[in-house]
Fold this protein.
Amino acid sequence: MPADAIKTDVLVVGGGMVGAAFAAALAETGLAITVLDAEVPAAVADVPAATVDGVEPRVSALTYATQSLLANLGAWQHVPASRACAYTHMDVWDADGTGAIHFDAADTGTQALGWIVENRTIAAALHQACRQHANIDWRAPVRVTRMARAGRGWQVELADGTLFETTLLVGADGAQSQVREQTGFHLRQHDYRHRAIVATVETALPHDNCARQRFMGSGPLAFLPLADANRRHRLCSVVWSCVPQEAERLLGLDDAAFAAEIAAALENRLGSVVAVSRRAAFPLIERHADRYVQDQVVLIGDAAHTVHPLAGQGVNLGFLDAATLAEEIAGNLSRGLPFDEPLALRRFERRRKLHNLVMQKSFAGFKTLFAARALPVRWVRNTGMSLLDGVAPLKVLAARQAMGLDGDLPARCRPAPRGTHLVRPS
Ligand SMILES: Cc1cc2nc3c(=O)[nH]c(=O)nc-3n(C[C@H](O)[C@H](O)[C@H](O)COP(=O)(O)OP(=O)(O)OC[C@H]3O[C@@H](n4cnc5c(N)ncnc54)[C@H](O)[C@@H]3O)c2cc1C
């Protein structure tokens, strides 16, 4: 081992939303943490968005569990009120029938079902939180050129020749993870044969803090409410999933034609679409690594799994990975064990992998169910939705699942007692 290698306990490749959350969650252990990212972190923009071009097209619907985690990590306070929209209602309906469900935060005893925030703002807020910890060494922009086993841990080399020697290597470097590829993890993947078009739109009618999702045979369309400068509630982030040929056609339309099509696709529930931002499209691929832990390497977030965005859960699952891994490592230390004691790392894998798999398969099942044209399937689908809508306890259960409030939650993701949550007006 060269004498000039920088020694660190935990080296995280990827300082996006999940990698930054993991570093912030682990910081209180006092371990030496290094975060490497290919890009310089964005600054938090505290300027309210006035037009469709003032919003980053990539946004995430954050669950209650995620909001609690961000608050506990000292990041939520860096999310400007002007860039976070609490949604209090959700309407989901089947384009091909009468099935519909309406969720209301009041029924679940909470003040909001979730929050819509730009990915850039979430990552920037988490970076701010990391900056409060002297034991986090954040390096960006950097390019990792080599990873090799060194003793019990790993040696990681950057393009500028900087060498790190780490006991534990964490891959939080997204769906195309270099860590996963170069350290020998096996990945299963399935192409959904869908592309997601994302854009910001302005509508004639206010969104009233309601998230709307219409399931069409060709794929789901979501209108997610956004905060805006003058509280007119007319900006929405849209995610329209469809087959690649249809995505190409929609991307090729001029703004006016796209606006007319997307308003009609939402059955004009928010009136006409009066402005559209630039559009981007993402191929949708389901991925899952067979293992999350192997040879002193751990995968979290999109590096370990990607899901269809129809339920808006991808990064929420990643945040649960981050909080659970930090919790297991801290647990080792509090029991006087080495921080990377293998049983705890395996426990992390067990706690997260089954949950992620169940969620991934449910979203894939939803996609198939709503794509089905056969009359009996459509009948079952519509009847099921209407039945669920009419049975309050079942509906609350479904809502709590979507809000991330049930299941094996790491302590940091458990919401504060009722009444102490800050729901910002937007
Ligand atoms: C259309 C669409 C809509 C979505 N909507 C939602 C939603 O509403 N709610 C939700 O929960 N999820 C949603 N998701 C999923 C969500 O966007 C992802 O799960 C999330 O971005 C994953 O975060 P991550 O930090 O794991 O990875 P990423 O966001 O991909 O971050 C990876 C980081 O690693 C860095 N990096 C990559 N490679 C290297 C390298 N070799 N060296 C150094 N750094 C590197 C990158 O610069 C980046 O900062 C959506 C996804 C799509 C496609």
Observations:
- The first strand starts at residue 6 and ends at 13.
- The radius of gyration is 22 Å.
- Residues 13-19, 36-39, 60-61, 119, 144, 172-174, 178, 196, 198, 239, 282, 301-302, 309, 312-316, 318 surround flavin-adenine dinucleotide (CB under 6 Å).
- Residues 6-241+284-413 form a domain with the FAD/NAD(P)-binding domain fold (CATH 3.50.50.60).
